[in-house]
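Subject: two folds for Thursday's group meeting

Dear M.,

Sorry for the delay on this. The cluster queue was jammed most of the week, so I only got both jobs back this morning. I'm pasting them in the order they finished. Each block is the input sequence followed by the predicted structure tokens. Could you check whether the formatting survives your parser before we put anything on slides? The first protein is the one we discussed after the seminar.
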Amino acid sequence: MHSSFSDMSTPNRIEQNPLAAMAGNSDSDPKRITGRTLEECKKMLYTMFGNRYEVIGSRNFLKGGFFGIGQKEYCEVRYIVKPMPMSSEESFEKNRKDLMEKLAGGNGGALSLSQLANIDKKLEELQNSIDAKLSNISVSSGNSDHASIQKIENLLVQNEFSISYINGIKNKLKSELSVEELDNFDLVQRTVVDWIGKSIQIFPYTPKQPPHVVILVGPTGVGKTTTIAKLAGTLVKNATQKKQPKPKIRMITIDHTRVGAEEQLRRFGALMDVPVDKAESAADVKQIFNAYKSDLDYLFIDTPGYSPNDFENIGKMCGILGIPGMNKDVYLTITASVKARDLVSIIQVYEQFNYDSVIITKCDETSAFGNVLSVLSEKHKPIAYITDGQQVPKKIERASVVKFLTNLNDFYIDRNHIEEVFSEKSEF
């Protein structure tokens, strides 16, 4: 790990005194704070100091584990706290006192009549000058945001949206809403919720000619095998409910890295009366596809999970799936609690699969979706499905803007309004 500043001491030390820093006018001595990511550290600093902190360096390091095994990555940030501007009244009183002492000092402590006559005029000039300077300080320090913008920023931080996403929302509020509109916080909330909704891209439901090949890729531990079973099981369940013929489905596993992966998929297949095949090469996949394609509606392919840094194995898997003639949808599978920085890496390394959209799993394991929504919005990636829980075929549904918006924490949500604006087809 490399550090952006070289005078750091023990990695896991946290040198901070937020109460003292907030109580005084400034704290120019560098302090340190530690978190899992730089983003997390910045959020903690913002909670303590608002916009008054300044990051002057950061570094990543490994900590914990047993004899170096199972270590986790942390980030240490070095920061200072900017001075808090005086209020107009405090500055006026200070300058008034200085002026009185100056005037009295040159006359043995006594003021002349002419000096007394000029005091009111000088004080008025000083007050005007102080007000102008304080106004400039407020603007330059970033503390001139309207109260509604500050409240919205706090709400977005609580929902774990990224700093870049939050700044984008703030800039839109400043440029598109008047002061009178900003004074109406209900209007501001409704506007921001609409903007968040419009930034969420939903992958459209697009039925394909059989055989429709569905491939799930993504890191280890995101629940690809269970999700494939949920997708296949939902197709069977929907056909039964509609009294339609059961779709002809087959599943393939190429996951030979995880112990029990094949057995798990076979158990799901047995429950749904869906056959499962094993493939270890592109030739295997091609053979199975060609053997059954004339009599299949859906072919689901379960893939192994690799670290985003395992470029070699991810590249090999991409080669295995590169079968010409497949009418396929490829989904990148991620968890709802993935960190923003990790998600950026995952998106980049899996681009080689030309995936169509994203499936977000384990939505029941987090209460804030801001990190995921921020990154997917900035990377222009649509969402197809969301899952929560282990039940098969339950606990999976088409992604919905309304669903994401109604799960925002502490925002006022006008349900009728967002359902009218973001109405979507419910087809699976």
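Second protein, same layout:
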Amino acid sequence: MIARYAIPFFFIMGLVVAPLVFILLCRWLAPRKIWRQAALACTLLIWAAVAYGYFVGFESLEVRQFEYVSEDLPEAFDGYRIVQFSDAHVGTYTGSRQWLLQKAVDSINAQHADAIIFTGDLENLHPDELKPQASILRKLKAKDGIYSILGNHDYPIYMDMEESEKAECIRQTIQFEKQLGWDLLLNEHRVVRRDSDSIVIAGMENWGTLKRMPRQGDVKKTMQGVDASSFVIMLQHDPTAWREKVLPECHAQLTLSGHTHGGQFSFLGWSPASFTYDVWGGSAYEGNRALFVSTGLGALIPFRMNMPGEIVVITLKRKK
């Protein structure tokens, strides 16, 4: 399957197929006298882009700021700070790349957030990838804890195995996150308190509109017992669930997602992720309700071009 052979597939497409396509286009479109020079220039440019994205772009990390203002936010949580990170894909941070994961963890801890939220895709394909990274991930600390959800890669949908083996993989992934001390939310919610005030952090399992995406997310189960007057932060890996499930089925004021990686490439603000997702990065609003989509920390394929890995500092503000 493509997911299992994603990296060699990427290099074949980037270093062989794409240059051949541009060579043919140059031969067809460029003047006869210069088509060879144009084809060579295109080939070198493509090779340079692949090399840059693989060796330099993927190592870039940004700290992004997002402020959400709501009149529903309790007074005691005015200024509450959350660090969101998403799509870690820690199986990619092996060998000489492990320092990148350590850098990300150090950057997250340096924000001294009240809470840390992880919005899914901890692994690439299999829970065996997780154990070598446990000592680094265990260093994440926040006053009110670390809350996480599962992403599509955290379910073994890309592996050819028996159902019993898939169930065991999911069990191992869940067990691993809990052993880290993370509060993994599986269609559940938690109440965070400050004096007499509180907010709710709710976590759905993955739900996506695209074919083959896991649809384990259950909004009603996640919100069961949550008072209609509560301020709710909903965690959902796939941003397509915001319009399809979250907005019509609950009152969550702020939804945090990931999944898109921002297409791992952008040019003049455009990303190929826009072909698939209405919101592939940043924020969107429906009235006073908001969705924020992180473009992610890592990736199955270690390549990023003008789309650096990110951690997001979210500050909650009470509307006066």
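Two things I noticed about the second structure. The mean pLDDT is 93. Residues 6-29 form the longest helix (24 residues).

Cheers,
T.
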